Input
Amino acid sequence: MDGVTDAAFRYIADIYGKPDIIYTEFVSVKGLVLGKPAMGRMLLKHKTKTPTIAQLFGNDPELFIAATKKVFELGFNGVDINMGCPDNSVTKRGGGAALIKNPDLAVKIIQSVRATIIRIIGTSGKKFTLSVKTRTGIHVHGTKNWINRLLKTELDFICLHGRTLDQRYLGKASWDEIGLAALLAKNTRTKILGNGDIKSKEEGIEKIKKYNLVGVLIGRAALGNPWIFQGKIPRVEERKEVMLKHCQKFTEFFPRGDFKALRKHLTWYAKGFRHSARVRNQLMHVNNIDDVKKILESGL
Output
């Protein structure tokens, strides 16, 4: 998630949630290839055995080729091509979910990345996956045609969010459409992951069984709640401890980073605290870890 799943967030989710896989924020292939510092910061990673996938967006196959090489050199375990972001700043440039209405270009990008992966891996035997994160359509669900087109490219994984581009994050995700995708992929090499509105580990497991998926991705429900991947409900003291750990890791990864970027994370952790509205308001004005400590030590 853009502006959310940075290196510090991923570290916390990995250590306290132990998910099966981790995705980066989505990174512009153009910015990465041009060497923009912000793109490099977005791909900082901690040492972990958890497979970590670099998520890329853009609309230029040649830039995807160069970006894939960089991602491989940085030690990631795979590339995920974002064909699902509904944000206007991305779609108006032909990236993200806009690629759904340009399937020829989408396929060309996938084929270019796959050929690059084959070349750079060679005979090393190293596993490096290729996946796409996408939606069910533009204005209405068009899952059958769109997913069938993607399946012909022999991706390792497709993660399908059960909403159209126009829906953005409104309404309910259609898990029947995700189930259709799983049915279409049944006799292919591509595995289907579902995404949309999962609120707990238990709900995720239910969806996996019901729709014959290999897994689900959890996004918004993990905000301030890395324990969700373990199905655990933490005590207030645990929340406080992890809040401070998150602050520490943020300053380690981004010593010159603006602490304001961390404020939203802190308010998410504080849900359920005594006087939570007041506490969240205070957390929206912190500028360093000492400010956070003072609030947490004020008798919550």
